[in-house]
Amino acid sequence: MPPLFNRRPEPGLSGPLPPAPLPLAELLVRVRQAVETRFAESYWVVAEIADLTLPRHDGGHCYLVLTDQHVTGRGAQLKAQARATIWSQRYQQLAPAFLDQTGQELQIGLKVMLRVQVKFHEQYGLSLDVLNLDPSYTVGDLARQRLETVRKLEAKGLLERQKHLPLALGPQRLAVISSPTAAGFQDFVQQLSESPYDFAVSLFPASMQGAEAPASILGALDAIRPRRATFDAVIIIRGGGSKTDLLAFDDYGLAAGVGSFPLPVLTGIGHERDEAVLDLAAHLALKTPTAVAAFLAERLARLDAVFGGYAERIRELARLQLSDAADLLQQAGRFVHRAAQEQLDEHRAELYHRIRQAATVPREQLRHHHRHLTRHRQGLRRAARRALAQQQQGLRTFGRRLAQRFRRLHRRRREQLLRHRYGLQLAAERLLHRATLRLTQLSAPPLPEATVLARHGYVQLITDHQQPEHALQPGDEVRLLLPHLTLAAQITDRTPHLAPSALPTASPASSE
């Protein structure tokens, strides 16, 4: 039969999908199943009784609160705590035996070694069922040495270290430490071959009896250590033997080497009643090699059952989801039909309402727009009149400013022209006076007639009243005859001529 589980994942397979959210009850059911699967066997534990409730009557149960503490310089510190129960029938057997061998009854503060089985309940949580009690005091040197070894391992944390290592869900790559000729090894291999699952067994030979057994087993562990990545667990098995053959498995060095080993170590050293220190330091202690093989095959069977349960649960959930989806789809169809009918009725009513409003709303809007336009038209007229008045006022103001500015400019220009004319008259009088003085000093020939002088560019004086030239006074108006123009002038001053006989009768004038 082909192997159900491969030792390595097939290449090309994608990673698992993220898990769907679970109800709390289902999660706790899975925790219970995992605890029952993972901690199917019983375990020896060392703890202190923190609380104790003894049976009040025959047939009652004993309830304990177990704690694991260590003492530091600042006092005791709690490491772990768990509830434990000694059921009535087992208590009636264990309590008298404990009292006979130790001389004292169970009490608070007492450190005990118990063999417990882990239980988990969805409502009450984690608890321990006490299966057996190991008395604190034993008889004989071997028992004292064994107890001392256990205490040293516990002090260094090597007694429980293997318990905390995770064992693979389906351990199939096995490193077996045993004698090749041991019947226990043959039984182990035969038991594995009869299982429907595939196991890869690698044998590391070692001596399993005598004083050289601890060193031989430690040598095999050292050979496994560099190849630990290729194995899931280490199996230490041997066949049956006398009670003295177990002394090698109480060796502190061997137990410490197993307790500190990085892989889970399973033991099956072939004794039904006795338990070696090696068993306490191992991850899991089983009685015989065939028990170890049965445990491995059963672990894979449980894993197979779990996967089968998961598959069945997945199919059941799929059917439930399909049924729920079908019901939901029918409900959604009815809801959609009902909602569509309601929306259709609403739209029909709204359409009728809009049709009624279509006859009244436009007229009302037209009246509203007409009133609005009327107000705007009146407002525009008032605004136009106000703007026109403002523009007229601005134009009048601008006209007054232009008139004032024009008058100022005209007055300024007139004054400039008068100053210019006065300057020209003054310059002309000066030039005339200079010319007169120059002429008086010259002996010039007699001037020609007035008409001839006028024709050649000289000025002829004409009076309105035919007054003689010597009778003209300042303020009299005269005319000056030029060759091509006659000017009206006014006498402003008289200047006596030095040679009146030689010059024509004329007086300087200023034209207006």
UniProtKB/TrEMBL annotation:
Coiled coil feature spans: none
Catalysed reactions, semicolon-separated: Exonucleolytic cleavage in either 5'- to 3'- or 3'- to 5'-direction to yield nucleoside 5'-phosphates
Name the UniProt record assigns to this protein: Exodeoxyribonuclease 7 large subunit
Recorded GO CC terms: cytoplasm; exodeoxyribonuclease VII complex
An individual GO BP term: DNA catabolic process
Enzyme class: hydrolase
Domain of life: Bacteria
Domain OB-fold nucleic acid binding: start-end pairs: 24-132
Family from the record: Belongs to the XseA family.
Record keywords: Cytoplasm, Exonuclease, Hydrolase, Nuclease
Chief location of this protein within or outside the cell: cytoplasm
Compartments, as annotated in UniProt: Cytoplasm
Pfam family for this entry, one: Exonuc_VII_L
Location of the Exonuclease VII large subunit C-terminal domain: 158-443
Keyword Cytoplasm recorded: yes
InterPro entries in the record: Exonuc_VII_L, Exonuc_VII_lsu_C, OB-fold_nuc-bd_dom
Molecular functions per Gene Ontology: exodeoxyribonuclease VII activity; nucleic acid binding
E.C. designation(s): 3.1.11.6
